[in-house]
Write a structure and sequence with these properties.
The chain is an alpha/beta fold. It folds into two domains: about 1-35, no CATH class; about 45-220, 3-Layer(aba) Sandwich (Rossmann fold), CATH 3.40.50.300. It is built from eight helices and seven strands; from the N terminus they run ββααβαβααβαβααβ. The chain has helices spanning about 30-45, 65-75, 100-115, 125-135, 145-150, 170-185, 195-205, 205-215, and strands spanning about 20, 25-30, 90-95, 120-125, 155-160, 190, 215-220. Helix 2 (about 65-75) runs parallel beside helix 3, helix 6 runs parallel beside helix 8 (about 205-215) and helix 7 (about 195-205) crosses helix 8. The protein is globular and about 65 Å long. The two termini are about 35 Å apart. The structure holds adenosine-5'-triphosphate (ATP), magnesium ion and zinc ion. Magnesium ion (MG) binds near residues 101, 159, 160 and 191.
Amino acid sequence: MSRRQKTNQICPKCEGWGYIQTDHGAVPCECLAELRREEAYKSARIPTRYFSKTLESFRILEQSHRQIIEFARNFIKTFRVNAPHQPTKGLLLYGKEGTGKTHVAIGILKEVIAKGYRGLYWNVPELFLELRRTMSNSVDVDEASIIDEAVDTDLLVLDDLGAEKVSDYVMDRLYVLINGRYENDLPTIITTNRSLEELRGQIGPRIVSRISEMCLRIEFPQGDYRLRHLD
Ligand SMILES: Nc1ncnc2c1ncn2[C@@H]1O[C@H](COP(=O)(O)OP(=O)(O)OP(=O)(O)O)[C@@H](O)[C@H]1O
Ligand SMILES: [Mg+2]
Ligand SMILES: [Zn+2]
């Protein structure tokens, strides 16, 4: 099997074999580890665009960015599941568009996966779309398996919560998901553009009340990184 790089070119170091011949025999090429990492990201549903985004590549442009990265590092360091008396608190990352919330959430998720934990990323509007799709009989994904997988994983990232107003059907499923993680003391990282008050209007007070208890709130400072053309 040939080893390809992100650009879909054959790796120049091993010429596609995945191993390099040395005086001590064949050793795995670094592209092999990269490939395995990418496979793990894909099965965690991390979007390709964020494969290269890490906490290291998050630039400190202001003092509060330093605190955000400190929180992120501390979260990773103290991350644990199945520790009833010391559950890891989740994070609610909030702020305007383009301020780096998804970047940081995924940066954390990747490091937690690298520590050997299971992790899953869902963009919330996409999750809702999937759930709505399962209502039509013509699809083979079933609603329970989507929700169970998200309830069970060690670290769940719910990106862009409150982006749209949701139907009662979707709100019920979201409640089952959040409440499942709440009851099992499993940490969730949530990103949103909304205030808690606005979230209450979008997804209802019962869900927001649980999120407030489960998550530490971290504000991202203003300034759309996308518009600054730094990216
Ligand atoms: N401080 C930073 N250092 C490096 N890159 C950054 C920083 N802040 C944002 N970016 C980059 O800017 C782009 C937008 O960031 P991101 O997608 O994380 O924003 P967001 O807060 O999730 O926005 P939205 O609310 O619109 O989803 C990404 O490509 C991200 O990697
Ligand atoms: Mg985002
Ligand atoms: Zn190689």
